[in-house]
Automatic annotation (TrEMBL):
Gene3D superfamilies: FAD/NAD(P)-binding domain
Originating organism: Sorangium cellulosum
Tagged with keyword Oxidoreductase: yes
Protein name as annotated: Cyclohexanone monooxygenase
InterPro entries associated with the record: FAD-binding_Monooxygenases, FAD/NAD-bd_sf
Amino acid sequence: MSESQSSCSKHGAERACRFDAVIVGAGFAGLYMLYRLRQLGLAARVYEAGGGVGGTWFWNRYPGARCDIASLDYSYSFSPELEQEWRWTERYATQPEILRYLDHVADRFDLRRDIQLRTRVTGAAFDEATSRWAIATDDGARVSARFLIMATGCLSVAKRPDVQGIEAFEGDAYHTSRWPHEGVDFTGKRVGVIGTGSTGVQVIPALAEQASHLFVFQRTPCFSVPARNAPIDPAHEARMKASYPEHRRKARETRAGVIMEVNPKSALEVSPEEREREYTARWEQGGTGFLATFSDVMRSREANETAAEFVRAQIRATVRDPAVAEALSPRGYPLGTRRLCVDTRYYETFNRDNVTLVDVRASPIEEITPRGLRTRSAEHALDSLVFATGFDAMTGALTSIEIRGSGGASLKQKWAGGPRTYLGIAIAGFPNLFTITGPGSPSVFSNAIVSIEQHVEWIAGCLTFLRERAIDRIEATAEAEDRWVDHVKEVADGTLYPLANSWYIGANIPGKPRVLMPYAGGVGAYRKTCEAVAAQGYEGFRLSRTR
């Protein structure tokens, strides 16, 4: 199966290269996948559209950008030496610190020599005769690979707002996921922010400290819990590093890939006083562990409402203007069914004299004008616009590439009714193609690094299995894919997630099918399923040799 090293040849102005595997994306997933393929002695090339490694952490440089998983957990576990030598400074690392970490990983393991930056993969077609992928890039290269591994990330294709007049705006406009690397100074500027999801919750407090006036255009208020961010206590860091192997093992067996204390009690079986004490304790602790305050918060609408009302009470206690507090209070969907935000003084920001909340559900945006933004009831003069409008999540990065499988079948067309995968790793009709944290896997419902490492290690194990048996083609069967899609839906229907119009189900993209794309069954259970598939000789896959 292996060609032992890559080979390239020149044909006029074009360059043709052959690899064992091509990896698309140089974020957490692409870097680790390259590392593992190197260990197997396989020739691999990573293509990355950005000017540096880091994936989402290369692109998302907006003020306030940071992780909402604790730094000591949001890191690789594959190298004990790396675990011990890297020093995180805060409970929740900022974007610059995470990017420094990924640059360090790329240098420490000498990964850059197999990464081609500023190169976008535009298309890939499977050749039935050779069982190889023909891959096209925007620099004109012709690339052939036995395996194509998509490490494109779940949140990488930005969604721009569909608002009339954007091109007419005469001020400066920025999307949070394509932030200028040199930064932006908003001092003395009238700034408008559109979007109040996870990104908006982070960027709004930071912009409020700079702008002469900040207008926050909110359609759907979010549930947000305080981060309680702080410098990492050296004693805590020492304890964690001393117990990393066992800590990581336990995390892999949890529902979300992070260890948190889950209260086994129902929110409905305890007294109101005990409920209040438990919610208060989690609120003071900070972070997404708030969802684990009681065992049924994400399963029972009635239990969930007790948590939601607690958060709304915190908003009312924090925001001085009752009308603003009410506008910021989410209603109409269960807490946690849209991504739970983790913030630093988000609600407090609306007590500032230079911040105005504009409820665009009550007064919709009609157009962006050359000098600002007009809603149904008012016109707001602006010098700058910031779009914190999110992503075409889970599928956008895959369908934006022209991927064609057996018989020329289009992935975009196959997914026209919603994504269909086997385990979130493979797709029927697309041999030798792997998706890291693809739709149908825990992905965004988990600590991404735990899920990435599990997928990379499963793929590496699969390629080893194939090589040992001289098999050069693997493809998910349609029957296995159908069973998995049905299972993902069945698990989703047992949760509250389908009750919200969230990006989890594609509701933020006009015309996108409403399907809960991540797997809601939990990291631990999912891992066992994947291990069982491998142990049964890759059950649900068709294995063959090229004639």
